[in-house]
Amino acid sequence: MERQAAERKGATMNATIRNPWALARSLKDLFVANARTISFTYMLSVLENFFNLLYPFATGLAIDDLLSNRGYGALGLFLGIWIAHLITGVFRQRYDTAVFTTIYAKLATDMVTAQQKQGVPSSQIVARSALARELVDFFEQDIPHLIALLFSVVGSLVMLFCYDMQIGVVCVAILLPLIWINRGYVRKSLNLNQKLNDQLEKEADVLGGQDSAKVQEHYLTLSKWRVLLSNAEATNWGILESTLILVAGYVIVRAASISSAEAGTIYAIMAYLWTYVASLANAPALVQKTCRLGDISDRIKLVEEDPRP
């Protein structure tokens, strides 16, 4: 009977893991429960990234004004943006640490209590309480990174269009092949992350058994899945980077050929290009993290009872 119950519980968990909406539900529930404080941290992140987006523009103006002896007004603008960015960033970092440590304490407590009532083995609860921290980290670290990524991609594109239409069009055009490349990577990353987390949940039992051979096998298995994940991410990054090299070469030639462009304008174009390129190059790491969290969110929620009699 116990074996049958365990098999049914395992089947239920496997069905849950395959649910593609689990991550969205988990993140939504966590956000709704802490909407006011989380929203405020993201407002600060948006403001911080807005100031960051203005750096190349203000720097280019300052360079042109100083080279043309037009005064120090643009330099004052640059320094003002820098000071505002500094104040916003310091306050945001101090505030969000306090907010998200409190959220994790409540989430871990509720999760452990609920899964104990459901009869989930202690070894799995221990592993999942650690995995729950990654779900909170998604809000604390990955969402701000996503905001920064959106500012870097969309904001840089807007600024590039403002400087030169042809450069903007080319930078938009490369998005379609990059999206297609990432589709296959998403599927592979989902599968590898599920296998990695399956093995991590066995860790407490393996270490408690005090069998050196099984311990070695456990860590070798973990290493295998992590290496495969790293290789997949590196391959995807390499393909993306190769595409971006071609675009960067074109933009450099085009920027240098604009007859009306001053030195500061060319600097700003190249700065926005590097911001855009670097943001797209970070996409594989963000995809891999999201896939991992999708599997984690299934494991830390309540194990639903099998509806069959």
Describe the structure.
The protein has a single domain, classed as ABC transporter transmembrane region fold (Up-down Bundle), CATH 1.20.1560. It contains 11 helices and no strands. It starts with a helix and ends in a 9-residue tail after the last helix. Mean pLDDT is 79; it is low at 1-21 and 302-309. With 309 residues, the protein is mainly alpha-helical. The protein has helices at 2-17, 22-33, 35-67, 73-117, 122-163, 165-173, 175-200, 203-209, 212-257, 263-281, 283-300. The longest helix is centred in the last third of the chain and has 46 residues, at 212-257. Helix content is 88%, strand content 0%. Helix 3 runs antiparallel to helix 4 and helix 6 packs antiparallel against helix 9 (212-257).
In terms of topology, how is this protein built?
Blueprint: H1 2-17, H2 22-33, H3 35-67, H4 73-117, H5 122-163, H6 165-173, H7 175-200, H8 203-209, H9 212-257, H10 263-281, H11 283-300
Helix pairs in contact: 2-11, 3-4, 3-5, 3-10, 4-5, 5-6, 5-10, 5-11, 6-9, 7-9, 7-11, 9-10, 9-11
Helix content class: over 70%
What would the average pLDDT be, to the nearest integer?
79
- Span from first to last CA? 14 Å
Overall body shape:
globular
The beta-strand count equals 0
Radius of gyration in whole Å, from Cα? Answer: 24 Å
Structural class: mainly alpha
What would a concise description of this structure say?
The protein has 309 residues and is mainly α.
Which key features would you list for this structure?
309 residues, globular, 88% helix, disordered C terminus, mainly alpha, single chain, ABC transporter transmembrane region fold, disordered N terminus
